[in-house]
Amino acid sequence: MQAIKVIVTILFLIVVAAFAVKNMNPVDLFYYDLGLNIHSLQLPLMIVILIPFGMGFILAYLLGWIDRIKLKTRIHRQNRRIHVLESEVEELKPKPERTIPIPLED
Q1: Could you give the CA distance from residue 9 to residue 16 in angstroms, rounded to a whole number?
Q2: Is residue 49 part of a domain?
Q3: In-domain check, residue 68
Q4: Given pLDDT bands bounded at 50, 70 and 90, which one contains residue 106?
Protein backbone atom coordinates (compact mmCIF):
# COMPACT_ATOMS: atom_id res chain seq x y z
CA MET A 1 0.00 0.00 0.00
CA GLN A 2 2.86 2.38 0.81
CA ALA A 3 4.42 1.74 -2.60
CA ILE A 4 1.17 2.68 -4.33
CA LYS A 5 1.06 5.98 -2.41
CA VAL A 6 4.63 6.77 -3.45
CA ILE A 7 3.91 5.99 -7.11
CA VAL A 8 0.73 8.09 -7.13
CA THR A 9 2.56 10.97 -5.43
CA ILE A 10 5.38 10.85 -7.99
CA LEU A 11 2.90 10.78 -10.88
CA PHE A 12 1.03 13.73 -9.37
CA LEU A 13 4.26 15.71 -8.99
CA ILE A 14 5.19 14.99 -12.62
CA VAL A 15 1.79 16.30 -13.77
CA VAL A 16 2.16 19.42 -11.60
CA ALA A 17 5.69 20.04 -12.90
CA ALA A 18 4.54 19.69 -16.54
CA PHE A 19 1.64 22.05 -15.81
CA ALA A 20 4.02 24.55 -14.18
CA VAL A 21 6.42 24.56 -17.13
CA LYS A 22 3.58 25.21 -19.60
CA ASN A 23 1.94 27.95 -17.47
CA MET A 24 4.76 30.30 -16.50
CA ASN A 25 3.30 33.24 -18.44
CA PRO A 26 2.86 36.31 -16.23
CA VAL A 27 -0.66 37.46 -15.43
CA ASP A 28 -1.81 40.69 -13.84
CA LEU A 29 -3.49 40.27 -10.51
CA PHE A 30 -5.59 43.22 -9.34
CA TYR A 31 -6.57 43.67 -5.69
CA TYR A 32 -7.84 46.30 -3.28
CA ASP A 33 -6.03 47.39 -0.15
CA LEU A 34 -7.74 48.44 3.09
CA GLY A 35 -8.19 52.00 1.78
CA LEU A 36 -10.02 50.57 -1.27
CA ASN A 37 -7.22 51.63 -3.59
CA ILE A 38 -6.64 49.29 -6.51
CA HIS A 39 -3.20 47.74 -6.95
CA SER A 40 -1.69 45.44 -9.55
CA LEU A 41 0.73 42.58 -9.13
CA GLN A 42 2.29 40.50 -11.87
CA LEU A 43 2.74 36.80 -11.06
CA PRO A 44 3.21 33.61 -13.07
CA LEU A 45 -0.09 31.82 -13.73
CA MET A 46 1.15 28.71 -11.94
CA ILE A 47 1.64 30.68 -8.71
CA VAL A 48 -1.84 32.20 -8.99
CA ILE A 49 -3.29 28.69 -9.31
CA LEU A 50 -1.13 26.94 -6.69
CA ILE A 51 -1.64 29.44 -3.86
CA PRO A 52 -5.42 28.84 -3.51
CA PHE A 53 -4.86 25.11 -4.08
CA GLY A 54 -2.26 25.00 -1.29
CA MET A 55 -4.44 27.03 1.06
CA GLY A 56 -7.34 24.65 0.43
CA PHE A 57 -5.09 21.66 1.07
CA ILE A 58 -3.87 23.12 4.37
CA LEU A 59 -7.42 23.97 5.46
CA ALA A 60 -8.67 20.47 4.63
CA TYR A 61 -5.71 18.93 6.51
CA LEU A 62 -6.40 21.04 9.61
CA LEU A 63 -10.11 20.20 9.59
CA GLY A 64 -9.28 16.50 9.24
CA TRP A 65 -6.78 16.79 12.09
CA ILE A 66 -9.44 18.38 14.33
CA ASP A 67 -11.87 15.55 13.49
CA ARG A 68 -9.22 12.95 14.35
CA ILE A 69 -8.63 14.59 17.72
CA LYS A 70 -12.38 14.58 18.42
CA LEU A 71 -12.63 10.91 17.47
CA LYS A 72 -9.64 9.92 19.61
CA THR A 73 -11.17 11.77 22.56
CA ARG A 74 -14.49 10.00 22.04
CA ILE A 75 -12.78 6.60 21.77
CA HIS A 76 -10.86 7.28 24.98
CA ARG A 77 -14.06 8.21 26.83
CA GLN A 78 -15.86 5.13 25.53
CA ASN A 79 -12.97 2.85 26.51
CA ARG A 80 -13.06 4.29 30.02
CA ARG A 81 -16.82 3.71 30.18
CA ILE A 82 -16.37 0.13 28.96
CA HIS A 83 -13.79 -0.48 31.68
CA VAL A 84 -16.16 0.89 34.36
CA LEU A 85 -19.05 -1.22 33.08
CA GLU A 86 -16.91 -4.38 32.93
CA SER A 87 -15.81 -3.79 36.52
CA GLU A 88 -19.43 -3.35 37.52
CA VAL A 89 -20.39 -6.62 35.81
CA GLU A 90 -17.61 -8.46 37.65
CA GLU A 91 -18.84 -7.07 40.96
CA LEU A 92 -22.42 -8.11 40.26
CA LYS A 93 -21.62 -11.65 39.16
CA PRO A 94 -22.54 -14.18 41.83
CA LYS A 95 -19.52 -15.55 43.56
CA PRO A 96 -19.30 -19.34 43.75
CA GLU A 97 -19.96 -20.49 47.26
CA ARG A 98 -17.13 -22.28 48.94
CA THR A 99 -18.10 -25.63 50.25
CA ILE A 100 -16.37 -27.06 53.22
CA PRO A 101 -15.71 -30.76 52.84
CA ILE A 102 -17.25 -32.76 55.64
CA PRO A 103 -15.14 -35.74 56.68
CA LEU A 104 -16.98 -38.98 56.36
CA GLU A 105 -16.91 -41.31 59.31
CA ASP A 106 -16.24 -44.94 58.62
Answers
A1: 10
A2: yes
A3: no
A4: low
